[in-house]
Design a protein that fits this description.
Helices cover 43% and strands 8% of the residues. It has twelve helices and six strands.
Amino acid sequence: MASIISLPRYNIPLKTISTLIIFLLQLLPDRAHRSSSRPAVPAVIVFGDSVVDPGNNNYIDTPAKGNFPPYGQDFPGHEATGRFSNGRITPDMMASALGVKELVPAYFDTRLVDQDLLTGVSFASAASGFDPLTSTIALAIPMMKQLDMFKEYKEKLRKIAGKKKAASIISESLYMVCSGSNDVAEYFLDPLRRPIKDIATYSEFLMQTASNFLQELVNLGARRVGVTGLPPIGCLPSQRTLAGGVLRRCAANRNDLAKKYNEKLKRELNRLTAKDSRAKLIYVDMYSVLLDLIQKPQKYGFRVSKRGCCGTGTLEVAKLCNRLCHVCSNVSKYLFWDSYHPTERAYKIIVDKIIQRDLHLLL
């Protein structure tokens, strides 16, 4: 039988108790608000290609730019920042969802202030890839060069925040790595690459290059790293046009290479995490998320998933998507903005899904 503990009785007036309860209840919303407004991570730091480039390519000599209309038509202030979409892109939405800030700026942005650096930047470059040849052809910033920029960023952070706080920001931040799509697209466009490396060999080469990048990133202090797998590249509007035949079906060979790479990448991330307990590297499944949007657009409120909103929507991207192009009247019904990149609304759906399913493991 459980023992009964007798508690002393205090003669506290009922009115006093009621007042105390009301006072405590009034405090609860305030405390909840303070808790919910605290960022999940101190900063969001990004590496990769055009999917996550907020405008670094504006500052280098490359044709891969999106800093002109109609890009950015739905961005705050209708500004064409260099983001390859009609509005915000995935790092912006990720940082906003985590309570860090509303926009992740380009590292090369000349308007950066100290607070921008303290809360994270993007080193990404449109048209870049893990394969150094991909970046060379497009005059983009190679992934390993992006790591050099990160080293420079760390020094700036130390000067702003001091050694101890800078180290804390570097170790506790969320890192996003999104690259490889341009490698696959270029592989099938470049006849000189294919005889040297078949699909299986090239997917292995990409995985090893990605692994080298990630190991160096961890050595530089990254501890929470989300690495996106490749999307179903063969189903992008541009690849349907180039290799999908008269009916513009999904190009199976592109998707086959993407899937082979993704399987290798998943295994490698598990191996790296098991090998080095300092960091956690999580695979972010972009393939199934985007494929579901493409195959079942009505489920998400889209009407068009085989063409982009800009121009004919079949090939236009970067300079081909310009102010002379016709733009669809209702962009919210389009999954893709140009022939390669999703619309802001599509990005939002993708980000919500990957936070719930993948990135919560890092938080």
